[in-house]
Each structure stands twice: as C-alpha cells, then as structure tokens.
Amino acid sequence: MADASKSHVLATTLLAAGLMSLGGMAAASPCSPCSARDRKEAATRNPCAAKNPCAAKNPCAANPCAAKAPNPCAAKAIMRPAGYTPMKGDARLGERLFNDPKLSTNGMSCNTCHTGGAAYAASFAQPYPHPVQMALDNFGMAQIHLDEMVQLCMVMPMAAQPLDWQSKELAALVAYLGEVQKTFRPNPCAARNPCAAKNPCAAKNPCAAR
Fold it and tell me: What is the pTM for the complete model shown?
C-alpha cells in the first residue's frame, strides 16, 4: 500500500514538473484502448485492413523487353544457324500457338503483348529482314528475320528456350505472322511498351473508402 502511495506521489510530482505526459502514461498502459497492441488487433479485425487483393505484382509492371545492356553474344541463341532453310508452316496452327501461354515459362503468350495488333513497331509493315530496335538494343543485331524475331520473343518476354529451327511450331508462327503482317497498318498512337496493356489489377480497391 505504501509502495502504491509512493508511486502515485512520484507520478504526480513528475506530471507537475512537466517530465511526464498523460499521453505517455496512456500509451505505456497495457490496458489503454489506444495501446499499440490494441491498435494492431483492431487492424486485424478490419476486413479492409488486409492486404489489397489487387496489389499483386503486375506481370507487366517490369517491362521484360527492356534492355539492360546489348548482349551480342546472346544473339547466337536467336540467330539463324548455318545452313538453315525456312520451312513452310501452317498459319492456322500458328494462330493457336500465338495465343498459347504454354509456350512460355511465365504465363505469357505472344498475344499477351500483341492483343488487337498492339505493340508492333511501325517497321513490322516492312519486308524482313529489317532493323528492329528491340533486337538492336538487346542483342546488337542491326537486322533481323521474322523467324529470328519469333525466337527473340520466346527468349525475352516469354522467358523460354528458342524453338527448334526445324520445328513445325516455329514454321507455323512465322506463317501466321506473315499473314498478320499483310494487313498491318502502323498506329502512330500505339504504346511503345509491349507490356502497356491495361493492368488487370487496376480495378478500384473494393476496400477503398466511399
């Protein structure tokens, strides 16, 4: 009892001297409704305090086509091998493959970047081989063939291995893109970033205050 009295006198003295605030005492009290523990528990109970379900990493937030530095040594993986002769491909199979995310290791398909004819450079309308900025920036290639461009996209945005040069898949994709190229018209307003498609997680936060 005497100890409690002494503590009360000490606290009163410190308060009078301005060395202790009522706020400090309340924050230090484990029973305070505003204690750090209570605030944490309150946040846990708040259904909207949980992590935003739309805050998952946007697969296109980091541009997989962005060059860190030109790597001419890596160009061997996407350049036509010696003695290579292009095969005739099935454009209908190529269209299916164009939309198939199984070709990649990251869930992307060719159509992820090129939905509705988006993200083709204006030079896509020109006959191949021709200069493509992405090939120059990333692989130091001044000119590129269409089949090499397919291999570039396999290696970079889609994070996969190049297709076999004698495969029906490569021939089919080249055949399909050849058909797309015939009707392509450059869009001066098209975004340059092939990953600039609308973020599927950009919808309004369901937990945002109204």
Answer: 0.59
